[in-house]
Write a structure and sequence with these properties.
- With 433 residues, this protein is mainly α.
- It is 76% helix and 0% strand.
- It has 20 helices and no strands.
- Helix 1 packs across helix 8.
Length: 433
């Protein structure tokens, strides 16, 4: 066993890195959230607008954070960037939030989404939903503890597999469907508004930041990181818009809203019959499986990076990396344990909202960091710069502010809970100091 960043093996190339972006972003959200977006937006036109705005904000965010990733190519991603720019306290609060809220919440939500689709597919009793969710999280954590090459292989395979059901629903939905797409009401009132609708899309777009957590394990992060984020997110935005249009072409917006999590599989059943629908459902399960793999692969790197700075209890244990596998095994096991605890006490939709609110709160400081670094080091040579600077970073900042303020107004209890859990980390920080 050994401690230190250099013990992590540089196994990730551009293809695996781009697959990580696509694989982590395209997970459960595209299949679980269309109904939620329509309900929040009020009608199909505003729902599609929410998907577009969510994609624009996410792409602006990805383009902006890529500049930080190239200048600070360290494992730990946003935690490492905030530490470099703002110092240890703010980086610690982000790392604490990532470790105890965002990472476990996203892993837990994906585990629960996976089991909720698996139960009807195999005719399994509802009482086994939680054990199956916990089981798949534990299994995937074990695979990723064996090394990034195994997790990277699964990610590449799952990414290819998850694009198949999306492509089939898009092609056949646009071909066979004849429903009206624009101006169709959700059938429910009152609508929560565009803020809540965009927040729902951001769960579907979330995950791109995870690739920065493994920058220290890329073969050439200066070139790979921005390419992977830009190309990966571009593919994702096109996929999301087209599949939403295809679903609306097959099912009325009100029915998509009423079906909720089952809207995508119902669409597949109508397009391909019972057997074809089951095959598409398998593809959806593969999609969520791949996203879960990506989050498990990346999220353990943040507590690992914090442990290297001795900012967590039992840091000496969490910072250990077995030479045989070159992965932070103990940090990944910690995330799996916390995810299991959250799965027991919260439902997946609340977990996704809590995770999104806190993550985008810290994203704001990351976007501002690009301006601060340029001012601090005006003459430094950068292998990548944000295109459209300063407009693109400002779009990211304004979009993030809109998202955070909207959730605070629409779901104040979830927002306050997320803030409370984050600031519980302050006593731990002072104790560790």
């Amino acid at each position: 066993m050994a401690e230190g960043q250099d013990n992590l093996k540089k196994n990730l190339g551009l293809i695996a890195t781009m697959a990580l972006v696509i694989g982590m972003v395209i997970g459960s959200g595209i299949f679980m959230k269309p109904g939620s977006v329509i309900l929040a937006a009020g009608d199909s036109t505003m729902a599609l607008m929410a998907w577009i705005l969510g994609g624009v904000i996410t792409l602006a965010a990805g383009l902006t954070v890529s500049e930080l990733g190239v200048q600070i190519p360290k494992t730990g991603g946003l935690y490492a960037y905030l530490d470099e720019v703002y110092g240890k306290l703010w980086a610690y609060l982000y790392g604490w939030m990532q470790t105890v809220v965002y990472g476990p919440a996203t892993i837990g939500a994906l585990g629960l989404y996976f089991s909720s689709l698996m139960l009807p597919f195999f005719g399994i009793h509802e009482g086994l939903k939680l054990p199956i969710a916990v089981g798949v999280v534990v299994f995937m954590t074990g695979i990723n503890c064996l090394g990034t090459k195994y997790g990277g292989f699964i990610q590449t395979f799952a990414t290819i597999g998850k694009l198949i059901p999306i492509a089939l629903i898009v092609i056949f939905g646009l071909w066979k469907g004849n429903g009206q797409i624009l101006g169709m009401t959700s059938g429910a009132s009152p609508a929560l508004g565009m803020g809540a609708a965009i927040l729902a899309t951001l769960w579907a777009y979330d995950g791109w930041i995870g690739v920065s957590f493994v920058a220290g394990e890329m073969k050439d992060p200066g070139k790979q990181l921005p390419k992977a984020i830009i190309l990966g997110l571009g593919i994702v935005i096109i996929a999301y818009l087209t599949i939403n249009i295809a679903m609306m072409h097959v099912l009325p917006a009100a029915e998509i809203a009423a079906l909720g999590k089952m809207a995508a599989s119902t669409t597949a059943g109508l397009l391909f019959g019972e057997m074809g629908g089951k095959l598409i459902s398998i593809g959806i399960l593969v999609s969520i499986f791949g996203a879960l793999n990506g989050y498990i692969l990346t999220n353990g790197r943040v507590p690992y990076a914090m442990a290297l700075n001795k900012q967590l209890p039992a840091s000496s244990i969490l910072a250990k990396v077995p030479h045989s596998v070159g992965t932070p095994v103990n940090a990944m096991l910690l995330e799996a344990i916390l995810a299991t605890a959250l799965m027991i006490f919260w439902d997946p939709d609340s977990l996704t909202d809590i995770a999104m609110f806190m993550m985008w709160t810290f994203y704001i400081s990351a976007f501002i960091a690009v301006f601060l670094l340029r001012k601090r080091y005006p003459n430094i040579k950068r292998s990548y710069s944000v295109p459209g600077y300063p407009v693109v970073p400002m779009i990211a900042i304004l979009g993030a502010l809109y998202i955070v303020s909207s959730m605070f107004m629409n779901k104040p209890m979830d927002a306050m809970l997320a803030i409370g859990i984050t600031f519980v980390g302050l006593p731990v920080y002072w104790l560790m100091k």
